[in-house]
Amino acid sequence: MNNELLQRREDWLRSYRPQLRIREQGRVVSVGDGIAWVGGLPTAAMDDVLDFADGSRAQVFDLTGELVGAILLRETRDLTAGTAVRLYEKKLGIPVGDDLLGRVIDPLGDPLDDGAAPECSDWRRLEMPSPAITQRDFVHRPLYTGSKVLDTMIPIGRGQRQLLIGDEGLGRSSLALDTVINQRDQQVYCVYVLIGQKRSAVVTTIELLRDYGALDFSTVVVAEASTLPGLRHLAPFTGCSIAEYWMRRGLHTLVVYDDLSTHAKTYRELSLLLRRPPGREAYPGDIFSVHARLLERATCLNAEQGGGSMTALPVVETKQGEIAAYIPTNLISITDGQIYLDRELFTSGFRPAIDIGKSVSRIGGRAQHPAIKWEAGRMKLDYLQFLELEMFTRFGARLEAGMEKAIRRGRVLREILKQERLAPLSIEFQLAWMIVFNDGLLDGVEPQQVQDLMAGLQGRVEASGLQLDDPRERWVALAQDWLSSAAGAQK
């Protein structure tokens, strides 16, 4: 390494030529609330990086006739009005590479886990254009989340953008964590971005990832609630650039933005401080394009580009279930589907509280395995019919025998779909329980017996070694043998 540095120094000395060099130097006019107004930089452009004499750093965020508005990314106590400012030569970026796996960093790439700075050989800008249409491929491979509801009825494909939406405290982050944990043996690198969260929530998330062995193949980007608003704004772009680097190398990645509601509020705060004209709900007019630039970078590349993919799971918060609010509707229109969590389902004990009727995956079905797709289609139809029929029972209406049977089957299915958090399930088990249900093997079972039976079925599937491509007859034989054993044990 020393010889290489010496060689670089000698090459630079040989190429050096004495000449007149002119550099602009501005001065800080005012500073406060994470914003610095700078004068004397006539060639400054949007997104340029500014270096301050005291060691602070900022990014150009607004231009006026006389002044430059910049968001602070690093601030020292010595930063005051009158501090000298110069333009930095590079655009804003971070080092990227495999050394980021297992690390916790801030949006500038600095470590937050008491470890040494990551030794990354590559560097990538935070703001990059999304891949061209000619570089993209159709979503054709599934991304398994380990959730019974998602992997069967609302499937996600690698390269898809799927929105997690719902009120606070309904389990949006838990679903995202389950998905990350389930990638342990799937050869998928994960990036988890925490935006504006309390330190206690950040520590809990990191510890969960570490305890379940998910931190080994993940990078956590943290911008706490107490950090500068400029860093909170950059956090999702940092996570995207890290995942994009692996995608360009032909790898599969998953990036979670938790959450973009806080990011939107941060962008609104910065815009109002910079005196930009407000729009709907006081958000600036370009908030849509900010999130579109971010999420459009998630895609599936074709074979000529390496065949990598980046799947995005943005999280957004609603207030009292209002899905038609400004930021949620923006993100719904950008993404390829949404997973909606309902408070009534949560309070009734159905968890994860995913509303099947309001949730949709527009392109994930293309990536489903044919066996899963066939069984899930039959099962989803039965469940939706059950939800409609159950409404009639609330009025005390008398039902025909066929309707009563459909309601009994639906209640059993609802018990099957319940799942504890941080307990992702294999896709082979998903296929097994759908075959058991679709073939009517649980029609005589009481709902309270379902969870015990599912635990036994899961153990039988794991021991069998069956794969998704095995004939359906083998799966049916396993299910019948398991049910006979379970019935004998009860006797």
UniProtKB/TrEMBL annotation:
Cross-referenced InterPro entries: ATP_synth_asu-like_sf, ATP_synth_asu_C, ATP_synth_asu_C_sf, ATP_synth_F1_a_nt-bd_dom, ATP_synth_F1_asu, ATPase_a/bsu_AS, ATPase_F1/V1/A1_a/bsu_N, ATPase_F1/V1/A1_a/bsu_N_sf
Domain ATPase F1/V1/A1 complex alpha/beta subunit N-terminal: 23-86
UniProt cross-references to CDD domains, sorted A to Z: ATP-synt_F1_alpha_N (cd18116), F1-ATPase_alpha_CD (cd01132)
Catalytic activity, EC: 7.1.2.2
Site feature (Required for activity) residues: 359
Gene3D superfamilies named among the record's database cross-references: 2.40.30.20, ATP synthase alpha/beta chain, C-terminal domain, P-loop containing nucleotide triphosphate hydrolases
Coiled coil: none
Residue ranges constituting the ATP synthase alpha subunit C-terminal domain according to the UniProt record: 368-462
NCBIfam families (alphabetical): atpA, PRK13343.1
Name of the featured protein: ATP synthase subunit alpha
GO molecular function: ADP binding; ATP binding; proton-transporting ATP synthase activity, rotational mechanism
Catalytic activity of the protein: ATP + H2O + 4 H(+)(in) = ADP + phosphate + 5 H(+)(out)
